[in-house]
Amino acid sequence: MVKVGIIGATGYAGNELVRLLLGHKDVEIVWLGSRSYIDQKYSDVYRNMFRLVDAKCLDDNMDALAKEVDVIFTATPQGLCASLVNEDILSRTKIIDLSADFRLKDVKIYEEWYKIEHKAPQFINEAVYGLCEINRHKVNKNTRIIANPGCYTTTSILTLYPMVKEGIIDPDTIIIDAKSGTSGAGRGAKVNNLFCEVNESMKAYGVGTHRHTPEIEEQLGYAVNRDDIKLIFTPHLVPMNRGILVTAYANLTKEVSYEEVKAVYDKYYGKEFFIRVLEKDVCPETRWVEGSNFVDIGFKIEPRTKRLIMMGALDNLVKGAAGQAVQNMNLMFGFEENEGLKMAPLFP
Ligand SMILES: NC(=O)C1=CN([C@@H]2O[C@H](COP(=O)(O)OP(=O)(O)OC[C@H]3O[C@@H](n4cnc5c(N)ncnc54)[C@H](OP(=O)(O)O)[C@@H]3O)[C@@H](O)[C@H]2O)C=CC1
Ligand SMILES: CC(=O)N[C@@H](CCC(=O)OP(=O)(O)O)C(=O)O
């Protein structure tokens, strides 16, 4: 059995990791790390885990944890993983970081958009950007550190990547309109996330400044060997628990038919277990992917404006966080990539 430790087990992404790992036949959770609930029963923090996970929460001592486990998941705020990791730790255990600490390859861009100093830039190049459907070939038993992509970026990149790579759209014209459920903001108490602030309302935020913008630009840039793509990314907060919906717009580079676009998506995703390219005129909906590791993708050619409209939906806590992290763990340990992740979406 692979021994697993989770730092940040008491957050929403951490709790989702616990849920998924309980259903994984090859792992054992041995460390539930927390900052605020040390020595409290995990099932007192999350009653859904009553009689399933009654162990007590431990601290976030990565040094001690690295001696006990084969892999550490860090589901913690930006900057924490980078402030704890060192060579000694990486020589003993693997790290899958759900935060953004190792996602951007240029430390200056990280510091500019995240407004914090990067405490471990020496590991940025080594870290693999764990978007499995695109970077699967880079994740194996020798991989020591995974930069696990987040919810908005996973949806946006997977929805756009084949179209950019195959030159169907002009990458300099991309506009991404994204919506997220409130669990995307985490469990920590914040006025903006109170029921009365969120219920019966919708809003854009981080307009023109959201930190996921450079990450999407960088990853789509790899598709066309460029480092100067600039796009618009506007996130919105919507009154639902889970789910990300992306609607992306871009200019077509030539006249294309539905069949041609579909053939490109099928070329990239036809054999992917977790990506479902929907039938003609069917639009992705968050309710059809909830609780699962699936990403649903749809598109429509808009001949009047010569644009392509691309849509993607996933569950932010599963494929957008914990599910993708488990998918990466499976690749790192040579398990079936979908082990522990085959569940159908939950509905209603
Ligand atoms: N929520 C989502 O949909 C997604 C989240 N992510 C990323 O996952 C990470 C966790 O997010 P999320 O679960 O939403 O956040 P939460 O606020 O729900 O949880 C944060 C976790 O980090 C712990 N923590 C906070 N500060 C510290 C600290 N200084 N030292 C040690 N532990 C600390 C908290 O411990 P305690 O509870 O004990 O205080 C808690 O377990 C973030 O980097 C986020 O960007 C990525 C994709 C999607
Ligand atoms: C609704 C909401 O507040 N969402 C968060 C993103 C959540 C997230 O998971 O961020 P990472 O992908 O970087 O890990 C935000 O916009 O900051």
TrEMBL record:
The keyword Secreted does not apply. Keywords: Amino-acid biosynthesis, Arginine biosynthesis, Cytoplasm, NADP, Oxidoreductase. Pfam families: Semialdhyde_dh, Semialdhyde_dhC_1. It catalyses: N-acetyl-L-glutamate 5-semialdehyde + phosphate + NADP(+) = N-acetyl-L-glutamyl 5-phosphate + NADPH + H(+). Residues 3-142 form the Semialdehyde dehydrogenase NAD-binding domain. GO terms for cellular component: cytoplasm. GO terms for molecular function: N-acetyl-gamma-glutamyl-phosphate reductase activity; NAD binding; NADP+ binding. It is found in: Cytoplasm. GO terms for biological process: L-arginine biosynthetic process. The active site is at C151. It comes from the Bacteria. InterPro entries: AGPR, AGPR_AS, AGPR_dimerisation_dom, AGPR_type-1, NAD(P)-bd_dom_sf, Semialdehyde_DH_NAD-bd. Pathway: Amino-acid biosynthesis; L-arginine biosynthesis; N(2)-acetyl-L-ornithine from L-glutamate: step 3/4. SUPFAM superfamilies: Glyceraldehyde-3-phosphate dehydrogenase-like, C-terminal domain, NAD(P)-binding Rossmann-fold domains. Its EC number is 1.2.1.38. Belongs to the NAGSA dehydrogenase family. Type 1 subfamily. Catalyzes the NADPH-dependent reduction of N-acetyl-5-glutamyl phosphate to yield N-acetyl-L-glutamate 5-semialdehyde. HAMAP family: ArgC_type1. This is N-acetyl-gamma-glutamyl-phosphate reductase. It comes from Lachnospira multipara.
